[in-house]
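Long-time lurker. I teach an intro course on protein structure, and each term I like to show students one example going from raw sequence to a predicted 3D structure in C-alpha cell notation. This year I'd like something fresh instead of my usual example. Would anyone be willing to generate the C-alpha cells for the chain below so I can use it in lecture? Attribution to the forum is fine with me.
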Amino acid sequence: MSENGIHALDAERRRASEEIADRVRLAVAALLAEGRMPSFYAVADVAGVARSTLYRRDDLKEIIVRAREGASLLAGSCESPQAVYISQLLEESERLRSELGEVRDELSRLKDERIAILNSVSHYWENESGRVIAKSGTSEYTYLFIAGERAA
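-- Reply from a regular --
Happy to contribute to a lecture. Here you go:
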C-alpha cells in the first residue's frame, strides 16, 4: 500500500474515533439531561457502541467516569449534573485549544526551518515528479530531497 493510502486510512480511523467520542459525549449529556446516571450500559445503548469499546478506550471511559463523579457529587447540591458536565467539557475544550496552539507554533517553526534550509542551498531544482532536489554546499554528493514547494 502506498504512503498516501496509509495516511488516508489513518485519517479515516481518527475521524471514526472522534465520531464515536462525540456520540458518547452526546449520550452522556442526554442521560444527564434526563436525570439518569450515565452507566456504561446506558451510554453504550444510547450512543450505539459496544460496551467493550467504552471500557477499552481510556478517553471514553474517562468521559463516563467524570460525568458519574460529577453527578454523584451534586446529588444533594443545587447545581445540575448538566452544569457539571458542561463545565468539564469547557475545561477539556480549553486544554485542547492550548494543545492546538502549541502544535500550530511547532508547525510554523518547522516551516521556517524548511525555508531556511532551502534558502541556504547553493542550487535546487524540481524533478519531473515535482519533488524539490537541492544541492547543498560544496560537496557534489550531498543532496537534500525536500517534498513540496520551493521557498518564496
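Some talking points for your students: The chain is about 65% helix and 10% strand. Residues 3-105 form one domain.
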